[in-house]
Design goal:
This protein is of the alpha/beta class. Helices cover 37% and strands 20% of the residues. The chain has eight helices and twelve strands. The chain is elongated.
Length: 237
């Protein structure tokens, strides 16, 4: 029989996977994250990372780009075929083209070496806040919607929605709090990895494309409610 957690109980610590082959860097990162209260597993090679993530229990992956075997970019490609877990790249490559490639592969953040442990901890905290741990129980139904957070898929009336990365993040955030009115700035902060460079009108644009895709499945569907001057809410019924 499952027991409810007391309302004032502290949340369980996050479990992070650090993939870094430089012992000195790994030691500093492990110390900083464990001091913050995280449980951190460490691997020096990219081989086997996807299998470890598939096994479950990992909340975020810190991934060095310059690994000696298959490389961080390839590991990220593997992860994104089945998992939406936050991925933060750690790399000595600071060129814009590398940052763009990493983000296009599905990474959530990109930290160039050398970095301060304090900055790293702050970035990890922000990513965990924006990407709460997936529910291991599988897809969850919210009225007409079904959300599989682990697979990063959302269905509407049983049909899979073909969503871009940001469309998915926006709809997933609305599904986290059905009927609650969420402001544009709030949605921008939680659903966009590049929020500082994106204006609040970006939210309006993505809401428009989401509505169009929902109406392809049901011409009369309009579950995303606009609250003028405030933001948006989602009607799941």
């Amino acid at each position: 029989m499952l027991r409810a957690m007391p309302a004032d109980a502290a949340p369980p610590p996050s479990t992070l996977l650090l993939v870094e082959d430089d012992p000195a860097i790994a030691e500093a990162v492990l110390y900083a994250l464990r001091a913050e209260g995280h449980v951190v597993e460490h691997r020096m090679l990219g081989t086997g990372v996807a299998g470890r993530v598939r096994a479950g229990g990992i909340d975020l992956v810190l991934l060095d780009v310059g690994l000696p075997d298959i490389g961080g970019f390839e590991v990220c490609r593997q992860l994104r075929t089945f998992s939406a877990l936050p991925v933060v790249f750690l790399t000595a490559r600071g060129d814009e083209i590398d940052r763009v490639l990493g983000l296009e592969l599905g990474a959530d953040d990109y930290i160039a070496k050398p970095f301060s442990p304090r900055e790293l901890v702050a970035r990890v905290r922000a990513r965990l806040r924006r990407h709460p741990a997936a529910d291991d129980s599988g897809p969850r139904r919210h009225g007409r919607f079904e959300h599989d957070a682990q697979a990063r898929r959302i269905r509407f009336d049983g049909q899979l929605l073909d969503l871009t990365r940001n469309e998915y993040a926006l709809l997933a955030e609305l599904l986290r709090r059905p009927a609650a009115i969420l402001g544009r700035a709030q949605l921008l902060d939680r659903a966009w990895t590049d929020a500082p460079e994106s204006g609040e009108r970006t939210v309006d644009t993505h809401v428009k494309t989401l509505r169009a895709k929902l109406r392809l499945l049901d011409p009369d569907a309009d579950p995303i409610r606009t609250h003028r001057g405030v933001g948006y809410s989602l009607d799941t019924d």
